[in-house]
Amino acid sequence: MTRPPVDPTVELRGITKRFPGTLANDAVDLTVHRGEIHALMGENGAGKSTLMSILYGMERADAGSIRIDGREVTFGDPSAAMAAGLGMVHQSFKLFDSLTVAENVVYAAEPRRFGLLDRAAARRRVRELAEEHGLAVDPDARVGDLPVGLRQRVEILKLLHRGARTLILDEPTAVLTPAEADALFAVLKSLAAQGRTVILVTHKLREVLEGSDKVTVLRDGRVVARLVTADTSADEIAAAMTGRAVDLDRVHAPGTPGDAVLEVTSLTTDAVHDVGLTVHAGEIVGIAGVAGNGQSELVEALAGLRPVTAGQVTLKGRDITHVSATERRAQGLAYVPEDRHAVGTAPAASVADNLAMGHHRTSLSAKGLLPPATVRTHAGRLIERFGIKAATPEVPASALSGGNLQKLLIGRELAHEAPLLLVEQPTRGVDIGAIQNIHDQIVAYRDAGHAVLLVSAELSEIRGLADRVLVMYEGRVTATYTKDEADEQALGLAMAGGAVAPTEAVD
Amino acid sequence: MFFDSDLLMSALRALTPILLAALGGALCERAGVFNIGLEGMMLMGCFTSVATSWFTGSAWLGVLAAALAAAAYSLILAVGAVTLRGDAVVLGIAMNLLAVGLTSFLLRTVFGVQGTFDDPSLAGLPLVGGFTPLAYLAFVAVAVAALMLSRHVWGLRLRGVGEAPDAAATLGVSPAKYKYAAVLISGVLCGLAGAQLALGNVTLFSENMTAGRGWIAVVAVMLGRAAPVGVLLAALLFGLAEAAGFRLQGVGLPQQATDAAPYVVTLVALFLSTARRRRRTANSPSGATT
């Protein structure tokens, strides 16, 4: 469906921005019409964020012009952009956790009585906006207590309270359940139908296809495609983003499970309740779930980073329930944590040193010393094997892109050749190209006869890799599926707490 | 009787300087500036109030000058920590050390004495119902600060700035402005605290006469969770400890031991509150914060 041509609300012409060493935006044109949901797509580093920062007054363009509602503007800071009717929901929410919903919404645009904050009016305002736009949320709740889906509503309410006519959302569904994402898109569509404009910055193809009217694709700072959603396909967009044909949603062939490697019975920690599971050699077991339902805590307990209050964990038949993380690794466990910056790597240390971590106890150690030459060769080997793009092994890990840092982390852990690999969110925030590489590595590792426990919030990843799928909800395993049963709908429902029929109950 | 109205009176007198300084510290804390320079700011207030009172003959001009001088001194923290993004802890410690040296030096050059300047004709603050007007002001300041923080638009913005400066900035609120305001107000309050100490509790200036009261105020901020009423209760605890220490001297305990009372209470209070906080963090669910 194409809408009748209307005057563009947001018009960027020839936006160019150069950072030392890179051309982040190269003469980018972007036209967004009133009432349109316009997706801005591209891989990490394609220049989406830079472009939006320029539009929102957080960065200054080296060249180019911006027109809002036909008038040429220059924004020195975000408040100027807000005054012109723009509003942005950042990927990491900009909220005050200790304040209430109402306080967050009216912050810096408060209703007052005698200089004092008029709480009643603030509450009323939130209720009105919430009702009008289908964004129900308790005005008196503390934002820190809310789940992410509701926090996002608070962000949107904040913009609506300020009268934003164009909403920019940066990766809005990264942290949402499928159901929450659907609800979000329903809201966005109704906002668009009211004549507001939505710019959606994302790299998720499915929601772009379902939720947007038009798509602009950036690659290497340049616009490489302008598409009408109704006339395009996921493959076409992905090809534009990566510059080559990619096979999306590849489902890998199942493995051939051998002996049990990891056996967990009735495991209980502060956030995990009575979880039992088994992972066999040559098998990938996937744990699906919305962030915050105990998956991280489960993996931390298995890795020896979180005390276990009840239950038992055995690795290759040996009880490791209460042994230290070091001892677990010695027994044959490798671990790719969720947070690659804070936990998985030491960003200030060099790539070579990061690759050596953990291996310093085993292959690299020579009578308690670490010969620099050994560390260098080890790093060189892994860099080549896993295709890590680093200027030299001596640069700090923080200089790597997200995808390359993740390759470093996964490569380092795979190189242990441990019988059990725990891997959390292996491709979060990683480009499509790197995702394929990482998936191939994990499958190859399984095929070499290792056991893999994979935690991911990404359904396509779980479905593509896992031989069996467990769903965690509120700290419990609420559903189990075989590879064939694990379709998107069943998983999505179970992740939202609606699981009623695990495998055993079906037949 | 050990606990009587005299003890309470002397506790309230001991409390005033700590309360004023801690209130300033609490505002800074809320604005996201960790202010451990309270001791130094207070000491600057002590000296300025005594010197001004001596040369003008007016204790009230002394109070005013103390507030201004300590506010000016607090600019070191504001400029250093907010504008230049330096480490507030390092700056605070430097300010405390500098204040000791600077006031001792000025004592020697201005009054030509060492250790203590003490003169019967030095004008002190008048007493109203047993307390200086500054003591009453301290309690009014608690109420005003509590109201401003919880109900006023300014307080809402200040709390927001302290918690998530980025979020405040995206909404067009300048974190730097609010941080400067909080630090300068803490300077004024510490100046008043110093004047209360040097022209109210006693009428003299001696080197390092704050004797750790600014540090106790820092602890009061932590114990009271940077809430005005919480800070008041914490300050009351320390005031009682100091008063009880005096009283214990009368019982025959050595002065060195009784002088230590407020500091022992500080240590115990810090230890208990940290233990409690650690237990709470250990129990809170993690992982949901991304």
Describe this structure in words.
The complex is a heterodimer of chains A (507) and B (290). By secondary structure, chain A is α/β, with parallel strands linked by helices. Chain A folds into three domains: 8-242, Rossmann fold (3-Layer(aba) Sandwich), CATH 3.40.50.300; 250-332 and 418-507, Rossmann fold (3-Layer(aba) Sandwich); 349-417, no CATH class. Chain A has 18 helices and 22 strands. In chain A, helix 13 (372-386) packs across helix 14 (402-414) and helix 14 (402-414) runs parallel beside helix 15 (432-447). Chain B has a domain at 15-212. A two-stranded antiparallel sheet of chain B has the order 1-2. The longest helix of chain B has 27 residues, at 5-31. Chain A binds chain B through residues 77-79, 82, 88, 90, 94-99, 103, 107-110, 112, 115-117, 148, 158, 175, 270-271, 291-292, 294, 296-297, and chain B through 151-153, 156-157, 159-160, 163-164, 166-173, 283, 285-288, 290.
